[in-house]
């Protein structure tokens, strides 16, 4: 067997690259290294701006040319870093050497020793992950999640008045509307999105064990905590003053748990949509050229929602693993977080792929109102709840002497099919006022949806 040419091992980088490739701008190894270069460059400029240790302030043109290393970071820098790391066997040290080479090329050798000054690798890494993960969530993942929520909201409002037989424990239950059920999912996801938006991306910049020891040894009269805070916040991050060698990753844990929570809500949506399709409540719109089965020509499979289910399960497993691992670091530092964090992009990749499938899947289904109406008309027994509740209110008001209304309706309806005529005759024979009887006789399963439609208005709160 002849060997294959180099192939992507992950389907995210192969089959599904079109759907998730935008994350690579931030959460790939190259994206991480570009952020590392950014942190190194900005720290150097930050120090020279303050003319520490007799350094000279770089003029605007020198700063601009130095920052081009970040904005023009590309394949040449990726290859050069690989070559450097082949010697250093240390990824952050390779970045430091790359920056030093560029300083030499720019005639800035006199400030080269301020490159990576007083930094441990984790000072660079934690800020780089803060930048890349924050940008990936804000620029790619969260907008796609909001698009899905917006699509669900649009459908919730469009179908707010479409009555549907509810099913609790898989059995016919008090009717609702299709739109109200979608609104529940929208409301849940909005809550999680608020949690995600409120996560503060933290950063530390305090040396080998978080004590500013090397800083103080080099500059005993410098207010290093204040400079650290100023530098971290200049990158758009929130300063963490109390850390070990690493930033404790608690913000990442909070983010990943919320992302996993959102995924589980979406998984619930997918299983419900799949079930509605199997029940005929939703019909699938044929897509030109698509094949549902290699042998059964009639089939249209709900593959978008099945694919989304699987990818949400993978994403949640990874998010949960990330959260579990990153919350712990032995003593002042161990390396378990290093490999773990390299899979952040994989977790968000599977989640983004699921969002893409859900968005496309929603465009490929339609509500079958005739099927919904037929199912409601075949389950008049669900009005037993309304009848026994009205009787109890009438008994309480002294307008009826019926004993144990619940048992009375249980005997009539439990495990039985009861039609409109039977219920009408049953109600007419009850000890109720004419007004109460008229209200009950006028009820239909399709009209017994309570405030379902009005509840959708809460999406505009």
Strand content: under 5%
In CATH, what is the homologous superfamily of the largest domain? Fumarase/aspartase (Central domain)
Unreliable segments of 5+ consecutive residues: none
Looking at CATH, which topology of the largest domain would you report? Fumarase C, Chain A, domain 2
| Overall mean confidence score, pLDDT | 95
InterPro entries: Fumarase/histidase_N, Fumarate_lyase_CS, Fumarate_lyase_fam, Fumarate_lyase_N, L-Aspartase-like, PurB_bact, PurB_C
GO molecular function: N6-(1,2-dicarboxyethyl)AMP AMP-lyase (fumarate-forming) activity
Domain Adenylosuccinate lyase PurB C-terminal: 329-449
Protein name: Adenylosuccinate lyase
3D architecture notes:
With 461 residues, the chain is mainly alpha-helical. It has three domains: 19-118, Fumarase/aspartase (N-terminal domain) (Fumarase C, Chain B, domain 1, Orthogonal Bundle); 122-287 and 299-373, Fumarase C, Chain A, domain 2 (Up-down Bundle); 378-460, Fumarase/aspartase (C-terminal domain) (Ribonucleotide Reductase Protein R1, domain 1, Orthogonal Bundle). Helices cover 60% and strands 5% of the residues. The chain has 20 helices and six strands. It has helices spanning 17-20, 24-27, 29-49, 60-71, 75-88, 91-105, 121-158, 178-198, 213-218, 224-234, 250-279, 303-326, 336-341, 344-362, 369-377, 384-396, 405-413, 420-428, 434-442, 452-455, and strands at residues 163-168, 171-177, 202-203, 238-239, 282-284, 365-367. A two-stranded antiparallel ribbon has the order 1-2. A two-stranded parallel sheet has the order 3-4.
């Amino acid at each position: 067997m002849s060997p294959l040419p180099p192939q992507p091992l992950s389907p995210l980088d192969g089959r599904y690259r079109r759907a998730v490739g935008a994350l690579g701008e931030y959460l790939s190894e190259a994206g991480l290294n570009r952020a590392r270069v950014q942190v190194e460059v900005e720290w150097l400029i930050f120090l020279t701006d303050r003319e520490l240790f007799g350094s000279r302030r770089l003029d605007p043109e020198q700063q601009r040319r130095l920052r081009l290393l970040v904005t023009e970071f590309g394949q040449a820098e990726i290859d050069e870093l690989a070559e450097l790391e082949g010697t250093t066997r240390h990824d952050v040290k390779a970045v430091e050497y790359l920056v030093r080479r560029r300083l030499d090329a720019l005639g800035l050798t006199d400030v080269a020793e301020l490159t990576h000054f007083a930094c441990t690798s984790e000072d660079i890494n934690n800020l780089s992950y803060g930048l890349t993960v924050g940008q990936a969530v804000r620029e790619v993942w969260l907008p796609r999640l909001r698009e899905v929520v917006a699509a669900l909201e649009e459908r919730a409002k469009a179908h707010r008045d479409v009555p549907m037989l509810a099913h609790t424990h898989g059995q016919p239950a008090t009717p609702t509307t299709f739109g109200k059920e979608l609104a529940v999912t929208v409301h849940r996801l909005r809550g999680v999105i608020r949690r995600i938006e409120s996560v503060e991306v933290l950063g530390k910049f305090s040396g080998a064990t978080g004590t500013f020891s090397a800083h103080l040894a080099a500059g005993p009269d410098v207010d290093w905590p204040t400079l650290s805070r100023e530098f971290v916040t200049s990158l758009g991050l929130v300063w963490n003053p109390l850390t070990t060698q690493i930033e404790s990753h608690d913000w990442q844990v909070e983010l990943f748990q919320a992302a996993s929570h959102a995924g589980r809500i979406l998984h619930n949506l997918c299983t419900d949509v799949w079930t509605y399709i199997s029940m005929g409540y939703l019909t699938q719109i044929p897509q030109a050229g698509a094949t549902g089965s290699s042998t059964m020509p009639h089939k249209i499979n709900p593959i978008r929602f099945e694919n989304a289910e699987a990818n949400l399960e993978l994403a949640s497993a990874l998010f949960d693993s990330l959260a579990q691992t990153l919350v712990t670091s032995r003593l002042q530092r161990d390396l378990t977080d290093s490999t773990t964090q390299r899979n952040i992009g994989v977790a968000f990749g599977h989640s983004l792929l699921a969002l893409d499938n859900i968005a496309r899947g929603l465009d490929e289904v339609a509500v079958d109102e005739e099927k919904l109406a037929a199912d409601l008309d075949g389950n008049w027994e669900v009005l037993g709840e309304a009848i026994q509740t009205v009787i109890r209110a009438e008994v309480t008001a002294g307008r009826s002497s019926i004993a144990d209304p619940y048992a009375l309706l249980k005997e009539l309806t439990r495990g039985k099919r009861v039609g409109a005529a039977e219920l009408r005759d049953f109600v007419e024979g009850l000890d109720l006022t004419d007004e109460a009887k008229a209200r009950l006789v006028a009820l239909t399963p399709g009209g017994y949806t309570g405030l379902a439609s009005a509840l959708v208005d809460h999406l505009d709160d």
